[in-house]
Design brief:
The structure is a homodimer. Chain A is mainly alpha-helical. Chain A folds into two domains: 9-72, Winged helix-like DNA-binding domain superfamily/Winged helix DNA-binding domain (Arc Repressor Mutant, subunit A, Orthogonal Bundle); 91-120. Chain A has six helices and two strands. Chain A has helices at residues 9-21, 26-36, 41-54, 72-88, 92-102, 107-120, and strands at 58-60, 67-69. Chain A has a two-stranded antiparallel ribbon with strand order 1-2. In chain A, a hairpin with a 6-residue loop joins strand 1 and strand 2 (67-69). In chain A, helix 2 packs across helix 3 (41-54). The longest helix of chain A has 17 residues, at 72-88. Chain A is elongated. The relative contact order of chain A is 0.10. The interface between A and B is large, with 39 and 40 residues. Chain A binds a DNA duplex through residues 8-11, 25-27, 39-43, 45-47, 49-50, 61, 64-66.
Amino acid sequence: MSAPTRPTDAELAILRVLWERGPSTVRQVFEVLSVEKALGYTTVLKMLQIMDEKGLVQRDASDRVHIFATSQTQTQRHMLDDLLDKAFGGSSLNLVMQALATRRASREDLAAIRKMLDQAEGRKP
Amino acid sequence: MSAPTRPTDAELAILRVLWERGPSTVRQVFEVLSVEKALGYTTVLKMLQIMDEKGLVQRDASDRVHIFATSQTQTQRHMLDDLLDKAFGGSSLNLVMQALATRRASREDLAAIRKMLDQAEGRKP
DNA sequence: GATGGGTTACGAAGATTTTCGTTGACCCGT
DNA sequence: ACGGGTCAACGAAAATCTTCGTAACCCATC
């Protein structure tokens, strides 16, 4: 299992649509993307073909109109791992600290994180 | 202030060296990188020139042998912001949860994070 | 079974990133 | 002043990513 290459910007734009809409046809992805940016139908198709080869999406070709899908958490995990290795020396502490310092987290968010820490440490609430 | 373009893989490799070594000459960066990968001296030089133009590194050209440097936290913050927007819908909670779930954090790490949560919530220890 | 509207496949052009060979400048010891 | 070594600048080739025109295909309807 080779390291899945990190998505390029164009690929990411497509992934975002699939995350938002769920499994979609080329046309559906195209409709969404073409609102923000002028681009051809076959461009989207080609990207999805390549992303399929790279393993970034799964293709269901059982019908004539193919359906493309992807797992958000799986992709997130890849990108997070990648960033962790490449920019944070593998230290998730470092990354988490910066993430919390940079973006203001809501009180609920902080509580949720605290809860998770409790679980991770095997505490009783 | 234009949006600083996200570093490519080759650029990231160079940034990592600068983070690790601190301000360095082209040759020093080259020495480190050439251990893992065959590449020419002028390749590294060219990359650093481009990265300088992009504002990814600062160049001190006061001596004949130029010195390149960069700020780790600044770059990390950019990349984190970028990832947050592009893959996590801006939710740092989501990102933090996944980061902690994916990579096993040490007990000290968890404690450090907890401490930080305390501060963020303005609690007394 | 021919036509039309929609589909995927293919290939190649255009844009960007990565690589490095060559050149001329500079420094230092002779 | 000369020669050998190191340096940054430049330009262009190679590799990769992005875009789309064209063709081939399928299926419904006529």
